[in-house]
Amino acid sequence: MRGLTNYHLSCCVNTLLQTLSATWEVADVLERWETGGVRGDSHSVPLQLKNVLAAMRSDSPQHVPHRDFLHCLDRNCVRLNTQHDADEVFLSILNFVQQQMDDKTLVGLQSLLFFILYLYTCVIYVCLPLFLCQALEIQDLYKISVETHLRCLDCSSVQTRSSYLLSLPLHIKEDHNSLESCISSFLEEQELRDINRCFCAQCGTKTPSKQGVKLLSLPHILCVHLKRFRSSRVYTRKLDCRVSFPETFDFSEIVRDAFSTDFAQNECKYTLYAVVVHSGYAMYGHYTAFIRHRTNQRWFYADDSHIQQASWEEVQKTYGGRYSDTAYMLMYRRGSKEGGQQPELSS
């Protein structure tokens, strides 16, 4: 692992880069991406991300030159010298990557189409889907497909809508929580009454209803967002209450009834490989990360340019309750095997 210097309050982005570097599937997709005409484009987030992740993979003892990536985000309105929310920046990076890879792909496709038409061949039917699919690969790594059901309590009619999430936003209670209980709460039915009533097409008016979520598919990389910040009209405060989380868990054992009838995945077991940690208060604080090394499976602590080996016991201290350094985002990888080897979990 390589450290990243804090440049104009960049601890949030530094921490996310450490998690993205640990998500080697992202770097693998970017490595296959033909940059072509975007080389040297200082506004291209996927290009600059590709460069910085490649630098983080190298064995050089020097700190990673990541200022180009930070300035690139700044040009895309993720400003330097600003305190950011890690989950918001993470989702922005994923969206920039897809949009800007799509943009460049489409430019390349236009040239390709003209060339193919000029040659009067039918290669267009083969090339078109190959380019478009690659731009979706990174988001697909994180995509949680869900089916939302809204049942009217007056006429019992049901409205169904399919959508997807790139991170799982979990509400936490101001008490002791566990990851398992937070996931169960997210997926259980909620009754919507009074100002929360929804429009029922059958009744022609807003009616009380019950809303529930079913899982259509689980992602390869599960990003969990522990919603520790509460906003009011006056200020935003941080919840330091305890949220325990395991090194490994099986989704199917937590929520047996939360799967759609169309759910077809057999593997639902996840292993933790990164934790984004927030210390301080809602309006000002600092981000660090715990990262599980891909090869030796040991935990490491990344605090900007400082990297040191850590233990599972130190990771557990980010549960909250007693310490101000609290887990804010959790990164889990589906499947219990990495590169054909079983990860050694802490005892």
UniProtKB/TrEMBL annotation:
Q: Does the keyword Transport apply?
A: no
Keywords of the record: Membrane, Transmembrane, Transmembrane helix
Give GO cellular component annotations, separated by semicolons: cytosol; nucleus
Report whether Secreted shows up as a keyword of the record. Answer: no
GO MF annotation list = cysteine-type deubiquitinase activity
Gene3D superfamilies (UniProt xref): Cysteine proteinases (3.90.70.10)
Protein name as annotated:
Ubiquitin specific peptidase 18
- The scientific name of the source species is Lates calcarifer (Barramundi)
